[in-house]
Amino acid sequence: MAKAPALKPKAPAPAPKPQVAAAPTAPPVEEEVVEEEAAGDAGEGVEGVDTGEGEEPGVGMVNLTDVDDSGKFVAVPRGTYECEVSNLTYETSSKGNLMWSWELTVIQEGEYTNRKFFYHTTFNEGGLPRVKRALARIVTDSGYEKELLVTAFNPETVAMEGRLIGARCKVRVDTKMYEGSMRNNVKDVLPPGETSFMQS
Of 25, 84, 191, 194, whose CB count within 10 A is highest? Predict the structure, then answer.
């Protein structure tokens, strides 16, 4: 009788591979999105509007007396203020006229020191008398403004040279409604010391 074939021992089952825990997935990083508020053209083409820009309190000091809760500067009272020309630029108005844009800063001591007004004089036929009056009434230490009254000059060059910066004058301001808030409007530029300070 034939013998049954011997059974081969079964090969041991392969050991299970160790399970490697998957590295925890880091939560997605949320990028902070900062929205930039578009700057408006405050006061562009408006005669003498005080935008309230450019005023810097002393280091470490904050003065909120001229700021209302809407973030707008409060207009100064109607009156006449001692000022100096703190900047002069050569620009094009919203109507396409070449002009000087004057930045006039209050220099008299008091509540409104360092407040700024803006005044525009255009170089077209209707605006030239206004340019002449402004030059006739401001006063520099060098007398440069008087030279401009009797000689031809390039308005852009004069603005770039900055020789009128620091000129002294008085500014008569009124108040007017502009873009929903009360602003200052420069009515006239006067010689320094011509009239005493007064509010009306």
Answer: 84
CATH number of the domain at 79-190, please? 2.40.50
Where are the domains positioned within the chain? 79-190
173-176: list long-range contacts, CB under 8 Å, 24+ apart.
173/48, 173/50, 173/76, 173/78, 173/79, 173/80, 173/81, 173/117, 174/78, 175/75, 175/77, 175/78
| Digit-coded pLDDT (tens) for 19-61 | 545 544 444 433 333 332 333 333 333 444 444 444 444 456 7
| Beta-bridge partner residues of 101 | 89, 120
pLDDT band at 74; cut points 50, 70, 90: confident
- Tokens of residue 143, six digits: 């007398």
Tell me the pTM: 0.64
